[in-house]
Amino acid sequence: MTCPKFGRLPKHIGVIPDGNRRWAVNNGLAKQDGYQKGLDPGMMLYEMCVELGIPELTFYGFTQDNTKRPAVQKKAFQQACVDAVKMLANRDASLLVVGDYSSPLFPKELLEFKQRKTFGRDLIKINFLVNYGWKWDLSNFINAVEKNSFKKTRNINEHIASSDISRIDLIVRWGGRRRLSGFLPVQSIYSDFYIIDDLWPDFKKNHFYEALQWYETQDITLGG
Amino acid sequence: MTCPKFGRLPKHIGVIPDGNRRWAVNNGLAKQDGYQKGLDPGMMLYEMCVELGIPELTFYGFTQDNTKRPAVQKKAFQQACVDAVKMLANRDASLLVVGDYSSPLFPKELLEFKQRKTFGRDLIKINFLVNYGWKWDLSNFINAVEKNSFKKTRNINEHIASSDISRIDLIVRWGGRRRLSGFLPVQSIYSDFYIIDDLWPDFKKNHFYEALQWYETQDITLGG
C-alpha cells in the first residue's frame, strides 16, 4: 500500500507495542523470544513517521511493573530496548530514554540517552520509555516542591520526570487490549486511543494508516 | 432484556456520559437542553449496578476545562449535576462529590458531599466528579509534601485530592470518543476502556451489559 494523503496528522504519537509474548506462544516459541520480533516493526514505524513528517514518536519499552516477570523475559525485553535504541541511533532522529535510571534494572548501555542525543538530519524526536513507572514519573515533582521551584509555575507538566515529552495526540496500541497500562498519564490526558487487534510482531503498514485515518475524523476539544 | 449472568464483574466502574450536547442538536434543541436528558440514564445505571452488586461507581460530571464553555451551558450542566446528586441522595447509596470546592464554579448545594454521606441501605459507593480537574487533583500532593506527610508512605494514591476514590477496573464512555479527557488519571492507570458510539441520552440497558460482557473476556495483569 502506498502512503495515503492526510489532511490532519497528529504531532505526537504514542505507541504501545503489545503482544510479543502472545505472538511467540502462537508461533511455537518461548515467550521471551517474542521481543526481538518487535524490532523490525519499530524501525518500519519510524520510517513511516519520517515519511509523513510526524514530529514526535514515543515508544513504550518496558515498565517497572513489567520487571516483576521471570528473569529470562526481563533480560529479553531489556535487550530488545537496547537494540531498538541502537538501531535508531544510526538514523536521522533525536533520541531520549526516560525511566528510572537509578535502578540496576535500567540497562547501562542506555544511560547516555538520559539527555536527548541528536543523530544525522534530526528529522524526528523519538522517546523511549525504559524501566518507566508512572509513580516514578509523578513522584519527581516532590523534588521540585522540596526545592521550592514548584511554586514559581505550579505547572505539573514541567516537574514530572518525563517533562521533556510533550502532550500526546494519538496513542496506538497493538495486541487488542484497551488500556493505558501506566503509559505517561499526564501526557495522555487528552489523547485519542486507537486499538489494533493484531499483535505487535504482526505489524502491517496498513494498521498505522488506519489509525491515522481514524484520527483525522476526531475533533480536538481539550475539554472545552 | 433481562440481566445476563456474569462470571467476573468489575468492582469499580467509571462512567463518562458524553454526547448530551450532540444529542440536543440532533433533536432540534439548544445544546444546553441536552444535560437534563442525562438524568434518567444515570438513575437507570445506578439501579443496574445495585442489581448486579457492583460496589463502586464514579460519574464524570463536569470539569474545570468544561467551565470555559458559554455561560448558559455552564449553568445547565451545573444544575444537572446538582439534580443527579439529589436524586441519588434519596436512594440506597453513599455519595461523595470530588472537585475544586474552593471555586465559585462548584455548586454550593453540593458542598455537603465533600465528605461521603450515606443514605438508606448503603448498597453502593457513588462518586461524582464536579468541577473536577486532573491538575487540581494531582496538585494536592504538594500540600502533603509541604506538610512532610508524603515521606511516610510515598504513595501518590493517598495524597491526591481524589484519594477516597479507588482504582477503576472498567471505564465506559458514551458518545463515541476514545479518550479519557482528564478523567482520574491515577485511578485510570490500569482501567479497561469500553466505548459506546450512542450518545449518553440514548442510553440503553444493553449498552451496559455489552460493556460488562466485554470486560469479562479481558485478563487483568496490572503490568505483571
Describe this structure in words.
Chain A has one domain: Undecaprenyl pyrophosphate synthetase. Chain A has a 7-stranded mixed β-sheet with strand order 4-3-5-2-1-6-7, with helices on both faces. The first copy, chain A, is globular, with a radius of gyration of 17 Å. Chain A has 224 residues and is α/β, with parallel strands linked by helices. Chain A has helices at 20-26, 39-52, 71-88, 134-146, 150-153, 156-159, 205-216, and strands spanning 12-17, 56-63, 93-98, 117-118, 124-132, 170-174, 192-196. Chain A has 7 helices and 7 strands; from the N terminus they run E-H-H-E-H-E-E-E-H-H-H-E-E-H. Helices cover 32% and strands 18% of the residues of chain A. The mean pLDDT of chain A is 93. Chain A binds chain B through residues 63, 65-66, 68-69, 134-135, 138-139, 141-142, 145-146, 150, 154, 156, 177-182, 185-186, 188-194, 218, 221-224, and chain B through 63, 65-66, 68-69, 134-135, 138-139, 141-142, 145-146, 150, 154, 156, 177-182, 185-186, 188-194, 218, 221-224. Chains A, B: This is Undecaprenyl diphosphate synthase. Chains A, B: It comes from Desulfotruncus arcticus DSM 17038. Chains A, B: Pfam families: Prenyltransf. Chains A, B: Keywords: Transferase.
